[in-house]
């Protein structure tokens, strides 16, 4: 299996899951500084020009964070990365979609790449502020879901890997304060050996 990533991109969360699973995989850096995501050979493999992407041993490419995480959880049931009930599965999907489609794509992307949201440079501060507001609301909602639990759904799951990269971005890339309840979650995540291995492999520690 080949895992396509870029250091400190959202692929970090999938990197964590691959390390939790612990089976061999090949890690391939898509160098954004060289625009490698828009060039051959990557663009033919993944015309979306995004990471994460997972190339299975049967040649099938899996893209989109929630789909990759779901695939990894379902194909490695012994690692218990998903709740076992239908209600738990639905709740996991609900959290993943919100964290990726809203908090990442509509929030953080506004801060990292404001020019994608306006053709006018003078508007970029307002775009970034809207991003901060979306992140703020999103992280507060995740803190409510977490409550006094150790992990979002009680037991550790793929949803925690998504929340981890959002928390990590907030603290290391966006200077956004995270709610106190999430500080504990971030510390618990950082204490996991799989998280430490993924951060080290991406040169983030
Ligand atoms: N909807 C995609 C989003 C992936 C995404 O936006 N990845 C970013 C890195 S965090 C990327 O590859 N950006 C490269 C680019 O847009 O040029 C998913 O869920 O995987």
Automatic annotation (TrEMBL):
One function term, GO molecular function aspect: transferase activity
Keyword flag Cell cycle: no
Keyword hit for Chaperone: no
GST N-terminal domain mapped to chain residues: 1-80
CDD domains documented for this protein: GST_N_Beta
InterPro entries, per the entry: Glutathione-S-Trfase_C_sf, Glutathione_S-Trfase, Glutathione_S-Trfase_N, Thioredoxin-like_sf
Signal peptide: none
The entry's keywords: Transferase
Designated name of the protein: Glutathione S-transferase
């Amino acid at each position: 299996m080949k895992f396509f990533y870029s250091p400190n991109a959202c692929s970090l969360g999938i990197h964590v899951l691959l390390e939790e699973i612990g089976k061999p995989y090949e890690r391939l850096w898509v160098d954004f500084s060289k625009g490698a995501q828009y060039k051959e050979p990557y663009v033919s493999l993944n015309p979306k020009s995004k990471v994460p992407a997972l190339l299975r041993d049967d040649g099938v490419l899996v893209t989109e964070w929630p789909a990759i995480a779901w695939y990894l959880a379902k194909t490695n049931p012994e690692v218990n990365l998903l709740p076992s009930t239908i209600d738990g599965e639905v709740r996991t999907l609900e959290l993943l979609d919100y964290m990726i489609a809203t908090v990442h794509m509509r929030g953080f992307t506004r801060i990292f790449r404001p020019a994608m949201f306006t053709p006018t440079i003078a508007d970029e501060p307002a775009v970034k502020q809207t991003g901060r507001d979306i992140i703020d609301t999103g992280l507060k909602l995740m803190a409510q879901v977490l409550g006094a639990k150790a992990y979002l759904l009680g037991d550790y799951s793929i949803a925690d890997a998504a929340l981890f990269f959002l928390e990590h971005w907030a603290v290391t890339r966006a200077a956004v304060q995270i709610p106190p309840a999430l500080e504990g979650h971030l510390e618990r995540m950082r204490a996991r050996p799989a998280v430490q291995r993924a951060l080290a492999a991406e040169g983030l520690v």
